[in-house]
Automatic annotation (TrEMBL):
<protein>
    <submittedName>
        <fullName>Transcription factor MUTE</fullName>
    </submittedName>
</protein>
<dbReference type="GO" id="GO:0046983">
    <property type="term" value="F:protein dimerization activity"/>
</dbReference>
<keyword id="KW-0539">Nucleus</keyword>
<dbReference type="GO" id="GO:0003677">
    <property type="term" value="F:DNA binding"/>
</dbReference>
<keyword id="KW-0804">Transcription</keyword>
<feature type="region of interest" description="Disordered">
    <location>
        <begin position="44"/>
        <end position="68"/>
    </location>
</feature>
<keyword id="KW-0238">DNA-binding</keyword>
<dbReference type="InterPro" id="IPR044283">
    <property type="entry name" value="FAMA/SPEECHLESS/MUTE-like"/>
</dbReference>
<dbReference type="GO" id="GO:0005634">
    <property type="term" value="C:nucleus"/>
</dbReference>
<dbReference type="GO" id="GO:0003700">
    <property type="term" value="F:DNA-binding transcription factor activity"/>
</dbReference>
<dbReference type="GO" id="GO:0010052">
    <property type="term" value="P:guard cell differentiation"/>
</dbReference>
<keyword id="KW-0805">Transcription regulation</keyword>
<dbReference type="InterPro" id="IPR036638">
    <property type="entry name" value="HLH_DNA-bd_sf"/>
</dbReference>
């Protein structure tokens, strides 16, 4: 009888040890996948930056518009509105999702730029709900989820252009130096 109890105890300890090892392995795999995802985003943004034409100013272009371009953000009955505004300094993409806007910005790393972007958003009656920053070398990807304020009367193209304008002062300043 004691041999059976000892064997049960040994099996229980081995199972607990294996479960702990499996959990740590799975945790490591999850972290590795997250790192790979960030590297992929950074490489994609770097590829996009290299493929941009070096135009002097931003060039807004519509993306999957399902309504008139001057439709205010406050109207939520439309499926999805979106716009891109690209320049040699930054790519800005804005999409409406329900009562929120998903804003993605790819640019070179500029100290203090995130503060400028947030100031622009707040000035335009948006509230930042979520912000994710991914970077690799000199390229950075800012991903925002912002809540549309009641006072906001901008089209999605105007939002993308306003955010794009926050980069212009740095570009002009850098060229002057």
């Amino acid at each position: 009888m004691s041999h059976i109890a000892v064997e049960r105890n040994r099996r229980r300890q081995m199972n607990e040890h294996l479960k702990g090892d499996q959990a740590s392995i799975i945790g490591g795999v999850i972290e590795f996948i997250k790192e790979l995802h960030q590297v992929l985003q950074s490489l994609e943004s770097k590829k996009r930056r290299k493929s941009l034409s070096p135009s002097p100013g931003p060039s807004p272009r519509p993306l999957q518009l399902t309504s008139q371009p001057d439709t205010p953000f406050g109207l939520e009955n439309f499926k999805e509105l979106g716009a891109c505004c690209n320049s040699s300094v930054a790519d800005v993409e804005a999409k409406i999702s329900g009562s929120n806007v998903i804003l993605r910005i790819i640019s070179r790393r500029i100290p203090g730029q995130i503060v400028k972007i947030i100031n622009v958003l707040e000035k335009l009656s948006f509230e930042v709900l979520h912000l994710n920053i991914s970077s690799m070398e000199e390229t950075v990807l800012y991903s925002f989820v912002v809540k549309i304020g009641l006072e906001c009367q901008l089209s999605v193209e105007e939002l993308a252009l306003e955010v794009q304008q926050s980069f212009r002062s740095d570009a002009v300043y850098a060229n002057e130096i």
